[in-house]
Design brief:
Layout lengths: L11 E3 L2 E7 L17 E4 L10 H4 L4 E9 L7 E7 L5 E6 L2 E7 L5 E4 L9 E9 L10 E5 L5 E5 L13 E7 L2 E12 L2 E11 L3 E7 L5 E6 L2 E6 L13 E9 L2 E10 L4 E4 L2 E4 L2 E2 L2 E5 L13 H14 L3 E3 L7 H10 L2 E5 L9 E2 L2 E2 L14 H18 L5 E8 L8 H15 L5 E5 L16 E5 L11 H14 L7 E5 L18 H15 L5 E7 L29 H10 L12
Helix pairs in contact: 4-5, 6-7, 7-8
Enzyme class: hydrolase
EC number: 3.2.1.31
GO molecular function, one term: beta-glucuronidase activity
Length: about 600
């Protein structure tokens, strides 16, 4: 799934900006058939929810409509014309004038709509996008929609972040030649000082293929002919954590001396593997230190913003982090490209969150409903998850920063039916990408004795909240629970890491005692966890929950969202941020020594 790029043969026009906007409660079902009858405008890219002061829009459940006029450049007459949506949360139908031309289900992966046969070079067309935010038992993530006596719909879901929706990422009109490169796959490795790039090029049409590799300075390295092959790099510079060296692999399609198409893909040469209880990057043990994050900022919601991208990475560098997990969905492609260039290590996660009927907004509901089965999450749900896995791996498999796939967050992996549900998903992921390890984040209800699927994965990733949801305020008891828990996983002989741990903290709340919600308690809780981690020889990483405070659904246990961030939602550091900085800047990418 190639990201659109401007090359010698390809062009694009950004469609970001202000679009006419309306909900399905404000306009008729056939709203695409004419200019929208609305005075509202919404910014793209951004979630629509927080842009308006009207609570009926913020809490709307159902479809919303975006519309704008688009002019096709007059020089595109001999090209294929496509519209690229980087994301539409959670499902979209696309219309050119009054004709439906495309659709997509899944809120965090991109899709192209080919409109060549419906538009004319040099002329304009009306583009309408209907985006549906509803979550059901057959969507990923799952949810339920209820309709009240007055016909108003309400949305329930089982994940602890706000269900922001709309066109949260960029939209662009782009062109490709009629014969073009449709996909490129690379797998890298090295032996001694010689690097290797195995490549496969997929074409739409027929042409001769020439592949050229250049270094970061633009110097020629090597080339090869043919749609498949191997490029060898003498004196290779490896992509390393903290040093994201990238080569440029350029694919040219030629008809004799005529250039038919050109596409350039950045390539980082590195290896990843799990060996025993170690996680290795370039054959060296790697220790994850970082965060679970969210795409979440004020007003924009989940809208991508390059200024926040730069600032967040600056804060990751300042605090000494080397990694993060894309909890709980694939992030914008700009994020992964930035990680590639700057050597940030990424655990890339699907949108499979909330697959646990005992969880509600981050805490146990005390319910007894089973999670897996025809009446709850059955074959239709699993088929949708499989498609999410296909699209995630197709989009991100060439990013050197992505070192592991996280297929699920906090599933009911201790329940009957979990293995039947997830084993085909694991098999699919291994088939699509045999080069990266697989993991999933294990909920506290699942332990080393009752988890049904842990043997299917390469790395054991634990989400644990001793000292918060369990024995809150008692760090001595929390430490005992944590030590017993971590010791119980040794028998599997796999690397173990923590993908979530932390405590809600109100900025500015202080106490000389270990009082929950204070900045001191958050810092002391993290320090206790770190003391335990350093005593575990098979432990390979710590990712705090969360990088920054984020918005959640309404609830009495959430005051202005989840406050487990070590930074506030507007990126001000809490005391815990300074505690982490002292720790993480004291050692490199290898495992820290036990604390005295």
């Amino acid at each position: 799934m190639l990201r659109p790029r401007i090359t010698a043969t390809r062009e694009q026009i950004s469609l970001d900006g202000l679009w006419a906007f309306a909900t399905d409660a404000q306009v008729p079902d056939q709203a695409h058939a004419a200019p929208l009858d609305t005075k509202l405008e919404a910014a793209v890219p951004a979630s629509y929810n927080d842009q308006f002061a009207d609570p009926a829009i913020r809490d709307h459940v159902g479809r919303v409509f975006y519309q704008r006029e688009v002019r096709v450049p007059r020089g595109w007459g001999n090209q294929r014309v496509l519209i690229r949506f980087d994301a539409a949360t959670h499902a979209a139908n696309v219309y050119v004038n009054d004709l439906r031309v495309g659709e997509h289900v899944g809120g965090y992966t991109p899709f192209d709509v080919d409109v060549t046969d419906h538009v004319t070079a040099g002329e304009t067309f009306r583009l309408t996008v209907a985006v549906d935010n509803r979550l059901t038992r057959e969507t990923i993530p799952p949810g339920t929609v209820a309709t009240g006596p007055d016909g108003t719909r309400s949305q329930k879901y089982l994940h602890d972040f706000y269900n922001y929706a709309g066109l949260a990422r960029s939209v662009r009109l782009h062109s490709v030649p009629r014969t073009h490169v449709s996909d490129v796959t690379v797998v890298t490795g090295y032996e001694g000082s010689t690097g290797r790039v195995d490549y496969t090029v997929e074409l739409s049409g027929s042409a001769d293929v020439l592949v050229t590799l250049r270094d970061e300075a633009g110097n020629f390295v090597t080339s090869a002919a043919g749609a498949t092959g191997t490029l060898e790099i003498a004196d290779v510079t490896l992509w390393q954590p903290g040093a994201g060296y990238l080569y440029d692999l350029t694919v040219e399609l030629r008809d004799g001396s005529h250039l038919v198409d050109e596409y350039t893909l950045p390539v980082g040469v590195r290896t990843v593997e799990v060996r025993g209880s170690e996680f290795l990057i370039n054959c060296e043990p790697f220790y994850f230190k970082g965060f679970g994050k969210h795409e979440d900022t004020p007003v924009r919601g989940k809208g991508h913003d390059n200024a926040f991208l730069v600032h967040d990475f600056q804060l990751l560098d300042w605090i000494g982090a080397n990694s993060f997990r894309t909890s709980h969905y694939p992030y914008a492609e700009e994020v992964l490209e930035f990680a590639d260039r700057h050597g940030m290590v990424v655990i890339d996660e699907t949108a499979a969150v909330g697959l646990n009927m005992l969880i509600g907004a981050g805490i146990s509901t005390g319910g007894e409903e089973r999670t897996f089965g025809p009446e709850v999450l059955g074959d239709p749900s699993r088929d949708v998850l499989a498609q999410h896995v296909r699209e995630l791996i197709a989009r991100d498999r060439n990013h050197p920063s992505v070192v592991m796939w996280s297929l699920i967050n906090e599933p009911a992996s201790n329940e009957d039916g979990s293995r039947e549900y997830f084993e085909p998903i694991v098999e699919l992921a291994r088939e699509l990408d045999p080069t990266r390890p697989l993991t999933y984040s294990i909920v506290m209800f699942a332990n080393a004795e009752n988890d049904r699927i842990v043997d299917l994965f390469d790395v054991i990733s634990l989400n644990r909240y001793y000292g918060w949801y369990v024995v809150p305020g008692d760090l001595r008891a929390a430490e005992q629970y944590l030590r017993r828990d971590l010791a119980s996983w040794e028998k599997f002989g796999k690397p173990v890491m923590m993908t979530e741990y932390g405590a809600d903290t109100q900025p500015g709340a202080h106490s000389v005692w270990d009082g929950p919600w204070t900045e001191e308690y958050q810092a002391n809780l993290l320090a206790m966890y770190h003391r335990v981690f350093d005593d575990i020889p098979y432990f390979v990483g710590e990712q705090v929950w969360n990088f920054a405070d984020f918005q959640t659904s309404n609830g009495t246990h959430r005051v202005e969202g989840n406050k487990k961030g070590v930074f506030t939602r507007d990126r001000k550091p809490k005391a815990a941020a300074h505690e982490l900085r002292r720790r993480w800047t004291s050692f490199g990418d290898g495992k820290p020594k036990p604390q005295e």
